[in-house]
Amino acid sequence: MTKTGMQQEFNLGQNLRQYYGKFLKNRYRASELRVLSGADNRTVASALIALAALFPPQQDQIWTRDLLWIPIPVQAEPIIDE
Hints:
The protein is mostly helical. The chain has helices at residues 3-20, 41-54; strands spanning 36-37, 75-76. The chain contains two helices and two strands; from the N terminus they run H-E-H-E. The radius of gyration is 13 Å and the shape is globular. The two termini are 21 Å apart. The model has no long low-confidence stretch (mean pLDDT 93).
């Protein structure tokens, strides 16, 4: 994925947060959101980058000051690629 592609995915996550923010909680909860992706690396990476912008870590979720990111699981489904 190119730097431009990564930036576009991050911007997508920010735009989704801005547009759907009133429907989303500020923190990611596995019981409330399941993320599916195609099985190829590019689509998994795209989902991870968009999620980083959509759900930035809240104060108590920050595990290192060097990286303001929390891991959010993405389930890769080969059937999506068909």
